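Section 5.1 Outputs to date
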Amino acid sequence: MLKKLLCGLHHEGKDYNVANFEELTGKQQNYLMRFDDILELKEKYSNDPQKLKEELSFLNLRSHLPVILSDLTSDLQNDIGELYPKKSSEFIYELPIEDIYFLLINIRELSFGHMLPLKVTCDVCGTVQIGKKGAGIFLELDKLEYKRVSPETSRKEIVTHKDHKIVLKRRGLKEALQLENIFKDHPKDMYTYTLLLAIESIDGKKPTTEILESLTAKENNLIKEEVDKMNIEIDLNFEHICEKCKEELIYPLPILDPFFFSPSKIHTQGSPKSLYNTD
């Protein structure tokens, strides 16, 4: 299937933003069924449900999803069918993280249909609701709204009040994986590295933590504001009203859940006790 991405990649004056991808096969499902990895994490973080949730998402993002996307996305094209000059195993890591989410949603829809069954545990009263056999909670993937941008917007030049010339770039999957490792190993440095990984150069030099930390607070705020403006609009939340207590709740779409590609067992945010329960 050919589908236009939310952004894509810009190369030598051309925009490559049409992905050619296929539906999920048993081969890719093998990657998701590494229950030995999942069980190891469940045992390790049995007393910390929130940490377990984070580690399972990291495992999926780091090990499973890049392989699946590389397998299923055969090429990247421009509007006249010219191919991006890199293999999928390379350009997958260059794509903006929003394009990665977009691909995962569309592969899920192509493989199992547009109705995504959800399991929600109310954070207020604890009531569990499950989408099953046409009833309960479902999310219609084909009705999600997106905003597309030009691949040329993935790069931006700014000049600070101190006349520093800074070139910004939109973070891709590669940077997302780097941030994941930083979050796990150096959580106190997340602010610095979140900005650092969105900078291509400062005054023509490769950015370093020392250079970034030498800039004024006003300059750092400017960088953060401009980086935020480069984010692609994609709403990955859904609203739900509890059938028992009528509380209005907002949950994130569980794209990084190990069971996102299961046709019937989808789990969402809620009471930690319900997370990753495959019953």
